[in-house]
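Q: I'm writing up a methods section and want to include an example of the input and output format. Could you take the sequence below and give the corresponding predicted C-alpha cells, formatted cleanly so I can copy it straight into the document?
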Amino acid sequence: MQVEEAVKVRIGTRGSPLALAQAHQVAERLTAAHGLRDDQCEIVIIKTTGDKITDRPLIEAGGKGLFTKELEEALFAGDIDLAVHSMKDVPAFLPPGLSIAAILEREDPRDAFVSLKYSSLADMPAGAIVGTSSPRRRAQVLHARPDLQVVEFRGNVQTRLRKLEEGVADATFLACAGLNRLGLSQHISAIMNDDVMLPAVAQGAIGIEIRTGDNKIEDLLAPLNDADTALCVAAERAYLAQLEGSCRTPIAGFAQLEGAKLRMRGEVLSTDGQRVHVADIAADADNDTAVTLGEQVARTILDAAGPDFHAAG
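A: Here is the clean output for your methods example:
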C-alpha cells in the first residue's frame, strides 16, 4: 500500500511498561509494512481508570472495560487513530462505532508460575501464600491446591515482581506473553500446564481498535493481522459473549488450531474453586464456524452449570 508522505498515525496506549512495549511493537510493524519514518507513528499515552485504581480490586470498580474506556473515548474524540489493547482486557461487546481492525500473532498464551522460593505450584507447602488479583487464577489455584492461601496482589508486572521480593506472597502468576514481551522471561519459575490453569480468553493476543469505517487506518493495519490468531480469538470472544462474562466470574477459554480443526476449550469455576464446569469441542477451522464453536462451548457449560451460574460462590 502506498502511504502519503504527510500521514501520521496516532497510536493510543496505556502507560504501563507492557502497554508501551505493545504499542511500540505495533508502530514498528506499521513502519516496516509501509516504509514509514519513525516520526510518522506517534505514541499517545492515556491513563485509564484501571491504572488509577490501586487501593482495591478492580472487580469492585466495574471490572472489564476499566483499561479500555478512556482509550475508546479518545478514539471517538478523534484524539488518536487507533488503540492498542491486550485483548484479554477488552470487554466481549465493543461500543457501537468501534471495531477491532487487526490482531497480531499471538505470544505464548499460558500462565507463568513466578516465585523466589518454589519451583512450581506443586512444590508449595500447605498454607503458603499465592498473590493474584485475577478471579480466574484464584479459583484455579484453589481448585488445584485448596490448602493454599490466596491474597489480593495488584499492580503491573514490575510491581508484582517487587511485591514478591518484599515477601507479600510466596508466589504469583503472570502471563508468559507479558514477561516475554518485556524481556523478563528469566523470572518464570514454571509454565503452567493448561489442564491446571486454562488461560483467560484472548490471553497473549494484541488487538488494535479503530473507528468503524475509518478505511485509511483499516488499510494500514491489514498487513498486521494474523489470520490464525484472529480466528482463535473470534471463537474465544464469542464464547465470552455468550456467557456474558465479567471480571467477577472465573472464566477461562482457549482456542487453538489442530490441523484442519479448531479446538475450543472452556472452563467456568465457582469463586472458591470447588465447582468446575468444562467443555472441549472441535469444529472445522474457518471463519464461519469460529463464532458458532465458541457459542456452542459456552452453551454446553451453561447447561451443565444451571441457572445459578453467575451466583456461584
